Amino acid sequence: MTEDRFGRIERIQVYVVKTGIPKFSWSPTMPALLTTNTIARITTSDGYEGAGGVFSCTEHDFDRAVAEGMRPLLKGLLGRQALRREDIWKWMQLRRLSIPNTSIAGLDIAMWDLAAKRADMPLYMFLGGARDRVKAYASMQVFDGPEPYVDHISELQEQGFSAFKFHYKCEPDADIEMMRRVHEAHGGKGLDFMFDADAYYSHKGALKVARAMYEMGYVWLEAPFPDHDLDGYRELRRRTELPILPGGNTIVDLPSIAHAMRHDCWDGVRIDATTAGGITPSRKVMALAEANNFNVEFQSWGCALSMAANMHLMLAHDNCDYFEMPVPYADFQVDALGRIEVDSEGYVNASSLPGLGLEIDWDAVEDMTIFKIDVHE
Question: Is the pLDDT confidence value at 371 over 60?
């Protein structure tokens, strides 16, 4: 058997897609942001095609940077065998000096989608297939006071959710007050609650919040500090029994994650395949975490195409408990890019379709595209 039987990359199209998604923010310190979906579409000489999506958010204009980050890689990918994902990922990483992880991720995810389609298998099964569904939590927007959270939880329960993550003022006393009000209204109902502080707490404030959350039975405190404040994380973990997770925004490489694990900085790992460089490195993070008895709780934002890689990684492994679903999730879904929805029991489920399991309407994508790169042999 020779390698000539495997198709080579003959065309790559990159779409910067503007949608009707409303501006949003997950922190009171953050302005309302525009959302952009950048899509890589790879076609091989033997007729197979794969797509990868990356979600990004910017303040004043839609984001073309992810697509421009891909541009220097594209001509070098033409003629390569798309199935040699490890080899290609390492080649792209060697060019990381001026190319962001998100750009590499979109291309890497597209190649995994293509490989699974070539095998006629859903991607999670192609990756190993640990389970068919995973519990979702509603990642809630910022409200002005505690009562809207109480009311919205009830509304989301009707949609199937039984787990919820809050974003609020990022001020310890106010955040504790909100969480206590939620606990008074919904505690004891079998619901799971988490809180994301968006890296705005002092060490003293984080300890106060963590102890209050532990008393109320919360699942975890996320991002009390910037990811790189490893000393702060380690000290906080030493002084509270509540599980502490990082934000997962800046420490996404294997050596740094291994260092944080080894020094007892976190109770779990947090990454997003679309910002960590794709599925190829994320699989290794999952394996590293499993070897050290850690969970990896993925970030997951944007339309279905940008969330799908994370979902398939979760379904292919056991060491992840929750799928993050931003709400109202109808605001993030784009019909032309497929759909991921929560069922009546609060789970997201695997698709039986091959690859990422999404049906993409490329004509509609073209209509929504504000910037495009197209390279071919």
Answer: yes
Q: Which residue has the tokens 């990642």?
A: 139
Higher pLDDT, 5 or 58: 58
For residue 123, CA distances in Å to 113, 297, 309 come to 7, 19, 9
> Do the Cβ atoms of 277 and 97 come closer than 8 Å?
no
Task: Let me know if 241 is exposed, middle or buried by CB neighbors in 10 A (0-12, 13-18, 19+).
Answer: exposed
pLDDT value for 4: 64
For residue 145, what is the DSSP state?
Answer: S
Mean pLDDT estimate for the chain: 95
Domains of the chain: 3-120+362-376 (3.30.390.10), 124-349 (3.20.20.120)
Reply yes or no on whether the pLDDT at 187 is more than 90: yes
Per DSSP, the chain holds a count of helices (H) and strands (E) of 12, 11
- Whose structure tokens read 């293509």? 114
- The model's pTM: 0.95
- Residue 347 is encoded by which pair of tokens? 């789970």
User: With b meaning 16 or more CB within 10 Å and e meaning fewer, what string describes 207-230?
Assistant: bbbbebbeeeebbbbbbbbbbebb
Distance CA 39, CA 105 (A): 10
Condensed to tens digits (0 to 9), the pLDDT of residues 247-263 reads: 999 999 999 999 999 99
